[in-house]
Amino acid sequence: MNTPAELWLHHHTDVAERDGEPVFAALMLEIDRPATLTISRASANPTRPQGLVLDGEFPITVDQVVLPRLVLWSDTAPATVSVDVEPGRLAVSHTWRDGDVVHAWTG
Fold this sequence. Notes:
Elements: H1 4-11, E1 15-18, E2 21-24, E3 26-31, E4 35-40, E5 50-62, E6 65-73, E7 80-85, E8 88-98, E9 101-104
Antiparallel strand pairs: 1-2, 3-8, 4-7, 5-6, 5-7, 5-8, 8-9
């Protein structure tokens, strides 16, 4: 069976189908007004930390920190995080670390 990456590359798309379910390289969300998103993540393998990437065309605020791009790492971020976002496009994607190298399927 093909991996999602092989399917995305073969079909030149960011949405692949596997076992009848869509698999996204990234989700693009259109935020129409200021909002607070609550992100809850399941635990991940501690030997290969997983990250959730939030990349906006507007500032993203966590606590008092304001950034255009944020990665919530499974080994450093709380399992539940509240994020304040402004109106605009927000990309949500997956990344992971293997030692000092960061991998992702986007960009």
